[in-house]
Amino acid sequence: MSEPTQSPQHTASGFAGSPIGDYLGELAAKIPAPGGGAVAALHAAQAAALVAMVARYTTRAKDADHRPVIDRIIAAADIAREGALALADADAAAFTAVGAAYKLPKGSDSEATTRTAAIHDALLEAARVPAAVIDAADEILALATELLPIGNPNVVTDIGAAAAAARAAAVTSQLNIEINVVSLPEEHAAAFTEVPARIEEITDRAETLHQEVLRAVRGG
C-alpha cells in the first residue's frame, strides 16, 4: 500500500448503506479509498449473497430431505455476507490509518522511531484485513461446493457465479497483502508466507466447481 496523497471520502454509513452508483463513483474517483481492498471484500459479499439466494430457492417440498443442510447454509452465507461488508469498511479504515502514520512528524530521532513503528502497525493491519477476506472467500467457496449437489438446478449457474466471485475476492486480497507486507520487517511479514499456496488451493477449488457447474448446465 503506497503512501496516500488524499483523504478517503467513503465515511457515511459504510458499504452496507451505500447505493451501488455512489460506491462506483467513489471507486472511479481520484481518491485512495475505496480501492482494491474494498472490491475484494465486496466480491466475497456478492459470493455469499449468491450462495444464500440459491439455498433459498432450494426450500421446495421436494427439497425437504436436505432442509437442515440448506437452512445451515443460508444462515452461514448471510453471516458471511455481513462479515464481508464489514471487512470492506475495515479496509478503508486500515488505509486511512496507513496514511495517518505516514504523515506523523519525523524531525527528531524519537519522532522518526515513533513514526516507523506506527507505519509498521498500520501496514500490518492493512495486510490482516485482506487475509480475513481470504478466510471469508474460503468459507463461502466451501458453502457453494456443499450446495451444488443439492441446490435447485434452475439456479445452478449462480453457484458458479459465487465460486467466481469468491476466487476474485481471494486473488485480489493476495495483491493487497503483498503490497503491504513488502514494507514490513521480516518478522511481521512471516505471518503471511502461506498466502500464495492458499490462493492457489482456493483457485483450484473454484475452477473445479466452475467445471462441475458447466457439466450440470450441459447435462453431462
TrEMBL record:
It holds the Pfam family FTCD_C. Gene3D superfamilies: Formiminotetrahydrofolate cyclodeaminase monomer, up-and-down helical bundle. Residues 20-191 form the Cyclodeaminase/cyclohydrolase domain. It comes from the Bacteria. InterPro entries: Cyclodeamin/CycHdrlase, Formintransfe-cycloase-like_sf. This is Cyclodeaminase/cyclohydrolase family protein.
